[in-house]
Amino acid sequence: MESLCDFIVKELNVGVFVLDPQYRVRLWNRFMAHHSGVKSEDALGQPLFELFPELPQKWLSKKVDSVFVLKNFAFTSWEQRPYLFRFQHNRPITGGIDFMRQNFTFMPVRDDAGEVQAVAVTLIDATDSAIYQTMLQSAMQRLEENSNRDGLTGVFNRRYTDARLSDEIQRIQRYQAEPFSVVLFDLDHFKQVNDTYGHLAGDEVLREVARRVQVVLREPDVFGRYGGEEFILILPQTDQHGARVVAERIRAAIAAEPVASGEGTIPVTASLGVACFSPELGTPQAVTHAADEALYHSKHTGRNQVTVHSPQQAAQD
Ligand SMILES: Nc1nc2c(ncn2[C@@H]2O[C@H](COP(=O)(O)OP(=O)(O)OP(=O)(O)O)[C@@H](O)[C@H]2O)c(=O)[nH]1
Predict the structure, then answer these.
(1) Which SMART domains did the record assign (predicted)?
(2) Contacts of 166 (CB under 8 A, 6+ apart)
(3) CA of 261 to the centre of ligand 1 (A)
(4) Which of 6, 85, 100, 298 is surrounded by the most beta carbons within 10 Å?
């Protein structure tokens, strides 16, 4: 029976080793020898921390000591501490994982009187779980990121900008934070672009406009596609004056030069409307409606220009 147990421990595809109270190795199975490069005959009787100086001695000895003192099992998983031994894992697809991920169990080995004479340790290779989990996490991250993006231009989509607008308003109402502004803009005579150059060239114009706008924005600004050829910008901590400056810069960037497409060079301009948050514009709908009124004013008084919302101007329109 004993030799059968020896056989299993030796052949198991799990690391097994046993430490005495001085952390000297009393058993070292084939898995440990294979992965560490230290043969059983060289390991036996040697202090573990001399064989593997890279081990986290303070942490590991505390763990082993607790098993001697408390006489209970202890565990550690790769999620808490990715590895103790720097073992290669030989997986072709690593997901950025360097060394073999390891789960450990620390078990008290008692004598007939119930005293703990040694601690048996098992090491399970958890690299596959770690790789799958890392891949899953990055896939989920990409999925979430994509679900916030507009497929054509890569800027945020309406669902996302709506949510960010609500967040901004809540932030102001809760913390009396500095007001933000919203800029809505819409490309001029875009129907004509599609009709003249085709829908694919129209798509290329939308992508290029998005690129031009992104270049002039600051990091906290939120830029999204609001609908067909209409875009929205949320400018945190930006008053009416600042928002007008940004909007003017965007207008100039869009109109700077025609867009080069396979169908020819296409002149492009946009009309913009700006609204700054105020207590009277206390909902996402109210503030975007105000920006939309200003945009309407830009459209109907010549296009390729910026209008800042004011109740007087809205009343005139
Ligand atoms: N290529 C392309 N065209 C789009 C897309 N979304 C909306 N459009 C087009 O954008 C055009 C918008 O036209 P209108 O709303 O009449 O406005 P406009 O021609 O831009 O005129 P003004 O806004 O008054 O300057 C329509 O022809 C839509 O088909 C898109 O994703 N790609």
Answers:
(1) GGDEF
(2) 284
(3) 17
(4) 298
Centre of ligand 1 to C-alpha 303, Å, is 15
Q: Which residues line ligand 1 (CB under 6 A)?
A: 152, 186-192, 194, 199, 202-203, 206, 228-229, 299, 303
Please state the CATH superfamily assignment of the domain spanning residues 2-134 in this structure.
Answer: PAS domain (3.30.450.20)
Which residues pair with residue 119 across a beta bridge? 19, 108
How many other CB atoms are found less than 10 A from the CB of residue 76? 16
Distance CA 95, CA 134 (A): 6
Record: fold of 148-316:
Alpha-Beta Plaits (3.30.70)
How far apart CA 113 and CA 69 sit, in angstroms, is 15
Secondary structure of 183-247 as H, E, C letters: EEEEECCHHHHHHHHCHHHHHHHHHHHHHHHHHHCCCCCEEEEEECCEEEEEECCCCHHHHHHHH
Catalytic one of 204, 208, 229, 293: 229
**Domain spans, the chain:** 2-134, 148-316
Which pLDDT band holds residue 224 (cuts at 50, 70, 90)? very high
Question: Which single residue is written with the structure tokens 């600051």?
Answer: 218
ipTM of the complex: 0.93
Beta-carbon contacts of residue 247 (< 8 Å; ≥ 6 apart): 183, 185, 272, 274, 306, 308
Residues 6 or more apart whose Cβ sits within 8 Å of residue 36 = 43, 51, 52, 85, 87
